[in-house]
Structure formats: structure tokens, C-alpha cells
Amino acid sequence: MKRFFFALFFLILPSLALSEEATEKPASLDQKIDGMIEPLAFWIDKIVFTTVPVAGMSVPIVLILLAGTSLFLTLFFRFINISAIGVAFRTVTGKYTAKDAEGEITHFQALTAALSATVGLGNIAGVAIAICAGGPGAAFWMILLGFLGMTSKFCECTLGVKYRKIDESGKVSGGAMYYLSRGLAERGMGGFGKVLAIFFAVMCIGGAIGAGNMFQINQAQIQFTEVTGLFKEQNWVFGLIVAVLVGAVIIGGIQGIAKVTATLVPFMCGIYVIAALVVLVINIGEVPHVVSRIVTEAFKPEAAVVGGFIAVFIQGIKRGVFSNEAGVGSAPIAHSAVRTDKPASEGLVALLEPFFDTVVVCSLTAFVIISTGTYDSYAGQSLGGTEQGVAVTSEAFASAIPWFPIVLMVAVILFAFSTMISWSYYGERAVTFLVGDNKGVLLAYRIFFCICTVIGASASLGNVLKASDAMFFAMVVPNLIGLYILLPVVKKETSDFLDHVKEVEGKK
Predict the structure, then answer these.
(1) β-strands 57-60, 51-54: how paired?
(2) Quick check: 142 and 316 in contact, CB under 8 A?
(3) Higher model confidence: residue 237 or residue 118?
(4) Cα separation, 215 vs 211, whole angstroms
(5) Is the pLDDT of residue 401 over 50?
(6) 3-state SS assignment for residue 172
(7) How far is 5 from 11, CA to CA, in rounded Å?
(8) Residue 147: which of 297, 326, 314 has the closest Cα?
(9) With 90 as the cut, is the pLDDT of residue 358 above it?
């Protein structure tokens, strides 16, 4: 631990120097960073978000694949996201899991560790961006994708446990890169699976450093400065404080992360949900009208911005995926560390993740923004960024609870912090897959991750974030290929676990 912080201090000095330069000439530094990253960002973004024309609008193919796959899987497994939800809740308690099963963390800890990476700014700011640009109907499609995405999460996390790797010390390595390489090798496609796995791992590292780290700290710093007025000219100080806290957690690996998130996630979600319910109670008379607007405007072209129904659909689907990550392949990395000998048991636990993240939390945010009348002030506007999305949500809550922006600031910081520590683990597992369990390399990765936290708080990272978001969505392609090829495995494991559930229930 001492060596980690000693190395972090000295390796972080160059970034502090850059931050001081940014204080004196922020525009110059921003231009330099953007100039270096822009060609890469443009190239990756162009490839990943390739579009096809639909009803006169350009729709990214990756969004069509995600939405289509979620629907297909839900139908294929006969709405298991409804029929097995009771079993899923009971599985979280460990009722169907052997005490001596292999793994590092409990079902509940795995769920909260994965939730900590998904519940965050997408729920607070992403919802505001979606409904302001696409109308209340965008919330309908966001919620629907969350519902369908429950099945995608179920499939990918079942495979994550099935094909995980456990070393002699009991340490687990898992995720899409393992079921792509090991699972496809079982089906005679070893070379193809290896290529997909390596591509996924590289994109995962990029997504972890950018979308899972720099983006999170950048937006948390903006909200912190806006509310408190502190560190306006020294953003790196805020980044350094968070970097040290992140470093203190990630040095402990998944067990340390799980312990923090098992406490932090329920706490921060509880505060946010309670506040949202208070606002809705205050505006209880508007709730039926809100429900009506969300449902009817999801299908009424004249209720949306330019592009009609397709515009509403795109906004809902895009923000839904950013929020719950269903189909991206990131969550299996956390879920694969669970203690279980039945892969589908964790798959069922994982399907609760989009339910809480999108169906519950995102819905509440949408209801608050619309019921307070805040949406009507921004209707049809394309918000410039996530910080503006947070401002809209903050304004909505403040209309009923004047002091809530302070609470929201705390929530944003906690959401960002929990997302960062979970994504640091995702990136670490990807590094391990590529180079092996080399302690020196892993330490270097953790230090670099923390350095990026400081840089993310102090610099303008428009193109960096554009590139990292593209890497985030690039993970979708190899992951979905793996899901389709390995569907028979998921079906077999599901049948095996449900038979086990019946056996356990029959004994009691």
C-alpha cells in the first residue's frame, strides 16, 4: 500500500504540472489535448457509430443491434425477466448457493459492484438529455430497453461465470473476453474467439480509462465547483483527492471494491430514490398526466423534435444503453467473481441490474423532471453536455426541495466514485487477460488510472471522451457475436439451475 501511494505521488507530479499550465492557459492546453486525440477520436467514432438511414434519419447500427438482440433474447427465453424475477431476488440472498462454492464475493456484493458501474450520471443527466431532446416519449423507450436488457444481462453474466478462470489462490478472472476465447474454442472457433476477445479487452481498457474514469471525474468536478465554488482555478486538487481515495480502494482488488460498493450503492441509491419520491408526492396530482405523456408521446411524431418517432426512439435507446450497459459485456467482469457453482444463478441475479438502474431509477428521474414542469422549459432543446443534463435534473428537484442541489452534488460525486472503482477493476481484468497476472503491470495500470483521474478533473477532454465512448460501444460487437454463438450453453445452464431451485424448494 505504501509503495502504491509513494509511486502515485511521484508519477502524478507531471500531471499536476500540466494542470498548473492549464490554470494559466486553459484554452491552449485544451487545444493541445484535443488536437492530439481528435484524429483517433474521429476515426473510432466514424467506425463504431456507422449509421443506416431509417425514416429519413441516420440511426447507428450498433443501437439497432443492441435493441434487436435484447428483444430477441427476451422472446427466446420466454420473458425470463418476468417469470424468474422472484427466483432472482431469492438467489441474491444465497438461498440456492453452496457455502463452499468457488469464487470471491457473494451474490449481493457482485450485484452492487456491477450496479456501481451502471448507476450514475446516466440516471441523473442522461435522462434529462434524452427527454429534453426527444420529448417525454424517450423515457418510454429508455424504460422498455431497460426491461428487455434484463435478458441480455442474464445471458452475458451466465456466460461470464461459466467460462471464468480461477487460479490456485482462488482469484477469479472473468468477463466477455473469457467466454469469447474459451467458449468459442469449445465450439471449434478458437482462433476467431481469440481475436474477438483481444479486441474486446483493448476496447474495455479504453472505455475504463475514458468513460469509466475521466468522464466521471470531469462531470463530478463540474458539479462540485458549481455548488461549492471551491477549486475553480485548481481543479487538479479535487482530482488528486479523488485519485487517492480511488487508489486506496482499487489496491484491494474486487474484494475491497465489493465491500465499498455493498455499502455505498444502497446508501446513495436510497437517498436519490427517497428524494425523488418526495418530489412526486408533492406533485402527486401531476403523476397520472406524466404517465399519459410518456406513453402517448412515445408514438406521436408531432410530440417530438425534428425526426418524430425515430428521434424519440433513438434518444431513448441511446441513453438507456449508456445507463444500464446491457449487451456491452462489461458487467460479466464483476459478476464472474461471485461464489457459485451454478452459472445461471448469477445470470438471474444480474437481470436485476437493469431493473434497478433503468426501470426504477431512470423512471423516477423522468417523472421528477416532467411532473415539476422543468421539462417544458427545455422541450426540444439538444443539451450541450452532461453537465447541462445534471443542471436540468438539479433544477427539477430544487423546485420542490430548494436545498437538494447540495444533496445532488454529493450523489453525483458518490455515483462517479463508485463507477470509477468498478471500471478500474474492469480495465484491470482486461489487462490481465492480455498480459497475464503480472503484478508490476497491474500496479502500473492502477497508477496510470489514478493519474488519469487527476487529468480528467483538470483538462478539457472532448475528443478523449468521444474516443472512449466509441470504445465503450465497440465492446458491443464481439460481445453480441459471442452471445448468439453460445446461446445453447446459456439455455443448458438455465435449465440446470432452475432444476436445482426446484430441488432445493422441494426439500423445504
Answers:
(1) antiparallel
(2) yes
(3) 237
(4) 5
(5) yes
(6) strand
(7) 10
(8) 326
(9) no
Cβ atoms within 10 A of the Cβ of 174, count? 27
Distance CA 263, CA 412 (A): 16
In 3-state terms the chain splits into helix, strand, coil percentages (rounded to 5) of 80, 5, 20
Distance CA 65, CA 478 (A): 12
pLDDT digits (tens, 9 = 90+) for 63-113: 788 888 999 999 999 999 999 999 999 999 888 888 888 888 888 888 877
Cα 416 from Cα 501, distance rounded (Å): 37
Radius of gyration from C-alpha coordinates of the chain: 22
E runs forming strands in 287-332: none
Rounded to 5°, angle at Cα 422 from 367 and 447: 135
What contacts 24+ positions apart, CB below 8 Å, involve 302-309? 303/135, 303/136, 303/137, 304/134, 304/135, 304/137, 305/133, 305/134, 305/135, 305/380, 305/382, 307/55, 307/56, 307/57, 308/55, 309/55
Name residue 466's beta-bridge partners: none
In the prediction, which pLDDT does 300 show? 67
User: Where do we find the cell 434519419?
Assistant: 57
Alpha helices in 174-252 (DSSP H): 176-178, 184-186, 190-209, 215-228, 235-250
Q: What is the pLDDT of residue 434?
A: 92
Taking 90 as the threshold, does the pLDDT of residue 259 lie above it?
no
Taking alpha carbons only, the member of 483, 31, 66 closest to residue 314 is 66
Q: Which of 463, 485, 477 is nearest to 202 (CA)?
A: 477
pLDDT at 342: 92
Q: Name the amino acid, one letter, at 35.
A: G
**CA 427 → CA 201, 287, 312, distances in Å?**
8, 41, 33
pLDDT at 459: 65
CB-based contact 172:432 (threshold 8 Å): no
The answer to whether the beta carbons of residues 372 and 399 sit under 8 Å apart is: yes
Determine the angle formed by the axes of helices 61-76 and 308-324, rounding to 10 degrees. 70
DSSP state of 105: B
Domains of the chain: 2-503 (1.10.4160)
Instruction: Let me know: does 508 contact 78? Beta carbons within 8 Å.
Output: no
